[in-house]
Amino acid sequence: MNLAEAVAKRTKELLVAKNMSQYRLIKTTCLERTSIQMILKNKTKDIKLSTVFLIADAFGMTLAEFLSADYFTTEFIEI
Q1: CA dist., res. 62 & res. 28, Å (int)
Q2: What gap in Å lies between CA 40 and CA 43, rounded to an integer?
Q3: pLDDT at 48
Q4: pLDDT for position 77
Q5: pLDDT for 26-35, tens place per residue?
Q6: Cβ(4)–Cβ(69) below 8 Å
Q7: Rounded to two decimals, what is the model's pTM?
């Protein structure tokens, strides 16, 4: 799993857990609809830290909390 895939997985999990729609995520982050869709569909190869920060903030989380999922460890992320 690469970093972009891990961010997509975490975002999808949080959308369900927080009962948030993609539309609300888009409006809260002020990111383009296509950007969020590309992330969620694993169509992006690289993702900016600032984008991850905006997504985490939309869920009311710090960046560290967002990245605290087990699959963000180096044993799971392809570097």
Answers
A1: 15
A2: 8
A3: 94
A4: 64
A5: 999 999 999 9
A6: no
A7: 0.89
